[in-house]
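Can anyone check this?
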Amino acid sequence: MAASDPIADMLVKVQNAAKAGHECVDVPTSKMKLEIVKILKTEGYIKSFKIVADEKTKHQIIKINLKYDDENKAVIHGMEKISTPGRRVYSGYKDLPRVHNGYGTLIISTSIGVTTGKKASEKMVGGELICTVW
């Protein structure tokens, strides 16, 4: 059975790998996933990422190197999908939710591309709420 929500699958994979203490995690690539991973890198939730070809399937995968603090605790404490294929959630820039009192990051798909909630507010654009990371 094919995955019905590939972005939620990616978030769960990354979160589980971080909790288990893995150094890196592989996820199948897509434009949306790549944009989300770029934001995770920019916001300091992951060390690095690179796109590599999977030898077995000949498809491209994103290899994400997870980040840990000095006490070997994962920098990613949690990730939560907001919009689902069955229930899309949209918000105007004035009504964007705060994530953990400003300590988390909201990832939103806008007309200017996938960006953080903070940047969307600055540029006064709303859009589809994808997920939160803290």
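Reply from J.R.: I decoded it. The two ends are 31 Å apart (CA to CA).
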